[in-house]
């Protein structure tokens, strides 16, 4: 089964979704991401979905779940690059993803995560940087 | 009933053709549609002659039902006339009178032709009434449809005109809303806004509702949807221009917009600039003009 690659960049994990999400892929991503956050002690998760054209309630809930899990593991989730049509669909589905931070593109999303890393200073970042 | 009303009607109309047409033209002329200046006398006469000619031809078939095949051409002519009148702005009365005023001359002719024969007169009158009322109603129906088409086109044009997204500054958009928000319009507004956010890479969108006459729970829900969608795209929204009365209504209705709201577009713009790390400062007072002259 294909998996979505998770890249580590400093204290952040980066996921770009470039295929159509089906339910099993989404669940696999959720699992992989959880274990990677725990393993690396990442403080930020950036999910880039500019290539994602179709969302349903399951994918929306998955995004919410990932954000909730990350929060428990002390990482912040930023979803970037959402298409207008996807945003409208999610709102019509009633999923406003209130627990998730959003940004227009990867650059601004990374800036959000970087701001958090800077705030924590070297202390919070210690484990993630050591493993670089 | 032994006497066929439609036959009586056919005989009368064919027999008194000239008299009926002349009398009808007279009625149309004094009817008031000429006074409005929307149609010329020659044109009105030509229309009346065509309609009357087609009515006579249709009657010759012996059919009394205005919806039957022989009346097809007549119905088309009437439809054309009333559609063009709808666009020209005629009143419904004028349009209906065009057909209904034909009744008077025909009834007079029937009266004259069947003076001694009461049964024929009644049957003929009945047939004439039924036929002309049907045609009159048909004319009104087309007139109504024409008006509705005009209204539909106008509302579409208004919708297109009234949903602009303006770029105020690098990364700051304004969406001045004017007029009542319904779900169809909110859809257009939302799509425009989101597309503009992508195109301009905007961080902040200011939704100005100075031109929205009322905000009820439905409008508020529409606004919240647009704001939630914009947030999902990574842009923040600020609402501005809530008028005092609207603020009161909203509070009384229990409507809550959980977003930053500013009194005027200027305040919202200032906040947006501050959030994107910019400030507006007054330049040092310009040197007096006199000093420049001395140099």
Compact description:
By secondary structure, chain A is of the alpha/beta class.
Radius of gyration of chain B: 33 Å
* Unreliable residue stretches of chain A: none
Instruction: State the CATH architecture of chain A.
Output: 2-Layer Sandwich
Percent strand of chain B equals 5-15%
CATH superfamily name of chain A? Answer: STAS domain
Mean pLDDT score of chain B: 84
Structural shape of chain B: elongated
User: From the coordinates shown, what is the CATH architecture of the largest domain in chain B?
Assistant: Orthogonal Bundle
- Going across the biggest sheet of chain A, name each strand in turn: 1-2-3-4-5
SSE pattern of chain B, N- to C-terminal? HHHHHHHEEHEHEHEHH
Global geometry of chain A = globular
Tell me the strand order in the biggest sheet of chain B: 1-2-3-4-5
Number of domains of chain A: 1
Mean pLDDT of chain A: 87
> How can the largest sheet of chain B be summarized?
5 strands, mixed
Report on the structure:
The complex is a heterodimer of chains A (132) and B (295). Chain A has a single domain, classed as STAS domain (Transcription Regulator spoIIAA, 2-Layer Sandwich). Chain A contains four helices and five strands; from the N terminus they run E-E-H-E-H-E-H-E-H. Chain A has a five-stranded mixed β-sheet with strand order 1-2-3-4-5, sandwiched between helices. In chain A, a hairpin with a 2-residue loop joins strand 1 and strand 2. Chain A is globular, with a radius of gyration of 14 Å. Chain B contains twelve helices and five strands. In chain B, helix 2 packs antiparallel against helix 6 and helix 3 runs antiparallel to helix 4. The N and C termini of chain B lie far apart (113 Å). The chains are: A alpha/beta (132), B alpha/beta (295). At the A-B interface, helix 3 of A face helix 8 and helix 9 of B.
